[in-house]
Design a protein that fits this description.
With about 625 residues, the protein is an alpha/beta fold. The protein has 19 helices and 25 strands. The protein has an 8-stranded antiparallel β-sheet with strand order 3-2-4-1-10-9-11-15, with helices on one face. A 7-stranded antiparallel β-sheet has the order 5-6-7-8-12-13-14. A 5-stranded parallel β-sheet has the order 17-16-18-19-20, with helices on both faces. Helix 17 runs parallel beside helix 19. The mean pLDDT is about 90.
Length: about 625
């Protein structure tokens, strides 16, 4: 993975391809490339530098054509290197590495997101037929397989090839002998068709509509098993139907064209140093937008059938990964304490591979910023296969696979999140999950009218409360100067703030590369206390709740071992700053919604620590924004 752009038209489409890659840079990548069919020959430029360098290279080499494909790669198979970068060529059997390097041309050019699980078996088969591999990628297998199956019709070759593939893929393919054709296919990785552009003859492929912002607002979202044939001014979509033994053509009503405005302005930095900083400060607006129109707690917030579905459930199962898993872990406390409904939270990548006990009366809730997270989608399908049909997603992308796959949805309105380390997506997820909690509580008779009015008042006040927390940034920056000189950190929280400590530790390690761990504060004496020294800063989330006195005792355990405490404390906790104890006072205590406020100083701490250490804040090493492979 990470980003795909393809185009066919009458003009030079290389600028469109390169600009599309730039719009996908936020996903993270370690190499990039572009290939075109120019004057009857396939030509490509590839680089392990940024897309801007690729653009300079392509311009210098005179790469220009009306048909082409481009890609940003986040390495899965094979190191980040030019020979592993996409697009991959197939030169046919028998061409050795030296000849391929000299020619840098081929018969098939292909870009791919996903992972091909049976690539080793296919590699051996193709090597036996004389194909020489020039990379360590699983992707090159697909290019050679299509070349092997090609008999004058690229669409037929792709259809035959994808039936041989096991795993996840979104691909774009062009062939030297068909200068007016671009073919794509998807299974387990997202792919969209863009229609129109400079004129009605243009057609585009992309892994994300954002890649085509400003080029077109007309999109078709391809489904699992779709193959698409693009020609100037026309397209045909076919779907793999095993019952009919192959691909069948679809009409326009089965994959309708939708108008989707992907705002290019959303990726402008404005006065901020990094996108992550911008997105931290966008949280008041993002929360306000996410809660816009919520005048009462009602099941219809989650879909027309929500009241019926909610009446059929007696427990909740949350499936998510990474930051979204921590938002689900926070929601577990809300759901069980306010709605009085049992809740389990599972890491999606683990859930589908273990034996579990399904309950058909479970509400399966998935959480994802992109709505395309491969592990979460797979876990959702696994849960349904076990006989749990009631599904709901909390997601930031209304057109995503997750929203389409689930019966119910609450679409957050965080807007485009560019920074790899999620911030505003996390807090808007919490807002959506709190609405779900209140809805289930009301339906189950645990939320009376005064309590509902009180919670709604607090929700409406959240944007203003977040603004007050953001005003603490200068104090956090002072902490960051000390953290930047450390190699390890410990985060502590209790109750519903324990997942917030986990999220704070994740943010710090993601972008500053400081090793950080989080524990429930009560677990200190059961092991982590052995790590505490003056060189181990200990961040403590200290709201004024029922566990405050217990937390103070845990803090004393740290001080007794010479540990340095950094405390995010509610103003009425009476925790005083003194040597070895640094305190940032939160503007107000916010009850059940306190986690949404307390996470913000931890986001700022990670951000400013990373800035002080000089790391790449928005594109941390080895990470990608949208994880569309297992």
């Amino acid at each position: 993975m990470c980003g795909i752009v393809g185009a066919i038209g009458a003009r030079d489409i290389v600028p469109v391809l390169v600009e599309g890659l730039k719009r996908l840079e936020y996903r993270g990548y370690d190499s990039c490339g572009v290939a075109v069919l120019q004057d009857g020959h396939l030509r490509r430029s590839r680089s392990t530098q940024r897309v801007a360098e690729l653009q300079t290279q392509a311009d210098a080499e005179g790469v220009a054509a009306p048909l082409g494909i481009a890609h940003t790669r986040w390495a899965t198979h094979g190191a980040p290197a030019v020979h592993n970068a996409h697009p991959h060529f197939s030169h046919g059997p028998g061409l050795n590495a030296a000849e391929a390097g000299q020619a840098d041309t081929g018969r098939v050019a292909l870009v791919h997101n996903g992972i091909i699980e049976n690539h080793e078996e296919l590699r051996r088969e193709l090597q036996a037929k004389g194909y020489v591999f020039h990379s360590q990628t699983d992707t090159e297998v697909i290019a050679h397989l299509i070349d092997h199956l090609y008999q004058g019709n690229l669409l037929e070759a792709v259809k035959a090839a994808v039936r041989r593939l096991t795993g996840a893929y979104a691909i774009g393919v062009i062939h030297r002998d068909e200068p007016r054709r671009l073919v794509g296919a998807r299974q387990g990785s997202p792919l969209v068709l863009g229609v129109g552009g400079a004129d009605d003859s243009e057609r585009f492929l992309a892994s994300d509509a954002m890649a085509l912002a400003g080029v077109t607002d007309q999109f078709v979202y391809l489904e699992e098993g779709d193959v698409i044939d693009l020609r100037p001014g026309q397209h045909q979509i076919l779907h793999l139907d095993e019952a009919q033994g192959g691909h069948v053509a679809l009409d326009a009503t089965q994959r309708p064209v939708r108008t989707v405005v992907a705002h290019s302005g959303a990726v402008e930095l404005g006065p901020y140093r990094h996108y992550m900083q911008k997105e931290i400060f966008e949280q008041p607006r993002a929360i306000a937008d996410t809660l816009e129109g919520v005048e009462a707690i009602t099941p219809t917030l989650f879909g027309a059938d929500a009241e019926h579905v909610f009446g059929q459930i007696d427990q909740v199962l949350i499936l998510a990964c990474g930051t979204s898993y921590y938002s689900g872990s926070t929601a577990k406390y809300w759901l069980e304490s306010i709605a009085k409904i049992p809740c389990a939270v599972e890491i999606a990548s683990e859930y589908r591979y273990r034996d579990s006990v399904p309950n058909p009366r479970t509400l399966v809730v998935t959480i994802s910023q992109s709505g395309e997270t491969a592990d979460t989608l797979a876990a959702l399908k696994h849960a349904r296969s076990l006989g749990m049909p009631h599904t709901l997603t909390i997601c930031n992308v209304a057109t995503s696979a997750m929203v389409r796959e689930c019966k119910l949805a609450y679409v957050t309105r965080a807007g485009v999140e560019i920074g790899v380390a999620s911030t505003k997506a996390f807090t808007t997820q919490l807002a959506g999950l709190f609405l779900l909690t209140l809805t289930l509580a009301k339906l189950r008779g645990h939320l009376d009218a005064p309590a509902e009015a009180g919670y709604l008042k607090e929700l409406r006040h959240l944007p203003a409360a977040l603004q007050a927390v953001l005003a603490l940034e200068p104090q956090v920056m002072a902490w960051a100067e000390a953290f930047a000189r450390k190699d390890n950190a410990l985060f502590l929280g209790r109750g519903r703030h324990y997942p917030i400590a986990l999220e704070g530790a994740l943010k710090l390690k993601e972008i500053s590369y400081i090793h950080a761990e989080a524990y429930p504060a009560g677990e200190l004496k059961h092991g982590p206390l052995a790590l505490v020294t003056a060189e181990m800063p200990v961040v403590t989330v200290a709201p004024h709740d029922a566990l405050l006195e217990k937390l103070k005792s845990n803090m004393q355990e740290v001080r007794a071992r010479g540990g340095e405490l950094y405390v995010c404390a509610d103003g009425d906790t009476h925790i005083q700053a003194e040597p070895g104890i640094h305190v940032i006072r939160m503007p107000e205590h916010f009850g059940a919604l306190s986690p949404i406020l307390h996470v913000v100083p931890l986001q700022l701490l990670a951000y400013h620590t990373a800035c002080a250490r000089g790391t790449d804040v928005d594109k941390p090493r080895n990470l990608a924004k949208s994880v569309t492979v297992e």
